Amino acid sequence: MLKLNSFQCHIKSLTLERYELAGQVKQRAKGILEEAEKVIRELQHEGLLQKDVTLGRNQLYQGTSRIEAIYYRMSQFQNVYTWKGAYHFSADFAHWYGWAHLQMSLIEIKEEARKLRELKKLKK
Description:
Layout: H1 2-9, H2 12-45, H3 66-87, H4 91-123
Helix pairs in contact: 2-3, 2-4, 3-4
């Protein structure tokens, strides 16, 4: 449906190429989310975060840890901005409002995980 609407104003071959590229962007963004979720699940397994917290689409944003709150922003906003920008052929929007923030949030999650693990060692 969306492609058919795009064909009304845009060249079909260019539109199909852009949709393919946007699909790749969406998959790469999904990979960043999966990497962040893996860090959170490892922390849960280590007993540093509450187990069985819902992440992603049905995630609550109140009463969560800092790491889970960062993941919420990644999932609900930054990821969506990345692929929506890509599907709207707006590389600038996709990068600066989505991809760059996804990358920075992943760095934050990894740093918070490192701090939690370090604090656990100090408490022993």
